Amino acid sequence: MVSAVVLLNVEPGQVNEVGARLAELKGISEVFSVGGRFDLVAIIRVQDNDTMAQLVTERMHSVPGITNSETLIAFRVFSEHDLAAMFSIGLE
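Given the sequence above, the corresponding structure tokens read:
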């Protein structure tokens, strides 16, 4: 699993529309509207680097209204959610 955080700026008045369109893309698990220097934060979780590259450079950037982005690739993920998922495999 490959994870990334994408920080996005969007055109004025487009936060909700862009956020909703991004949330529909396979591989984007959450989109947050935030205060500060960026307008949106997208959390990506995909199987491999090729899928990540296609999602970020092709599918995300085809969404109208995005003016700037910064992608932060995760080396490791430290979260209770991920640990719980790892230990619950096959225990349903």
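The chain has a mean pLDDT of 90. Try to locate this feature in the token string yourself.
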